[in-house]
Design brief:
This protein is mainly alpha-helical. It is built from 10 helices and no strands. The radius of gyration is 45 Å and the shape is rod-shaped.
Length: about 180
């Protein structure tokens, strides 16, 4: 049996200062019937719960403490701290998860591409392709375009390819080729 409550609370306070929150809590719970209306009992109980991360129970003990001594700023300060810990405890897990994701993204390197967003320079656009280069899709429109541009050899090449694709129109293409040969 406890004869001096001050010595009892000093012993609990010493346990809590050493980080022995579970030991302190067990001693406080053993005497809960005698000291539940004491400010110091509820303050130490709140600290023990806080040390064990049992924030909801710590809040209840500190609220009781604040009701007993509403002008005592120590209990109010600790009440706010425990309330803050209770609210932000799940966020700590999210924060650590986001930090891990940030670290993973920091090591990410986007694959290098050979294309750029810059348009092809005008000088490069104006460079004609060689007359001997094969034209993958010969059309009459392309031959006409080459004729207008003065690229007669290319136009002749297109008409020659068209004669093979459309033998039924070969006579018309031969006339156009002979007209282009005159311009060379």
């Amino acid at each position: 049996m406890i004869t001096d409550p001050h010595l009892f609370f000093a012993e609990i306070s010493l346990d809590l200062s050493r980080g022995e929150h579970f030991t302190g809590l067990k001693k406080l719970e053993a005497e809960s019937g005698r000291f539940t209306d004491f400010y110091t009992y509820n303050l130490l109980l709140g600290r023990a719960y806080r040390g064990l991360h049992r924030y909801q129970e710590g809040l209840q003990a500190l609220k009781t403490c604040c009701r007993i001594a509403p002008h005592n700023q120590v209990a109010w300060k600790e009440l706010v701290e425990v309330h803050f810990l209770q609210i932000h405890s799940p966020a700590d897990m999210l924060t650590s998860e986001l930090e891990a994701l940030s670290e993973a993204l920091a090591g990410f390197a986007a694959p290098k591409t050979c294309e750029t967003a810059d348009p092809t320079p005008i000088v490069e656009q104006k460079q004609p392709f060689p007359d001997e280069e094969a034209i993958s899709v010969p059309t009459e429109s392309l031959a006409t375009l080459f004729t207008v541009q003065g690229a007669y050899k290319k136009a002749i090449k297109v008409y020659t390819d068209l004669m093979q694709l459309h033998p039924d129109r070969a006579d018309a293409y031969k006339k156009k080729i002979s007209g282009l040969l005159d311009k060379l």
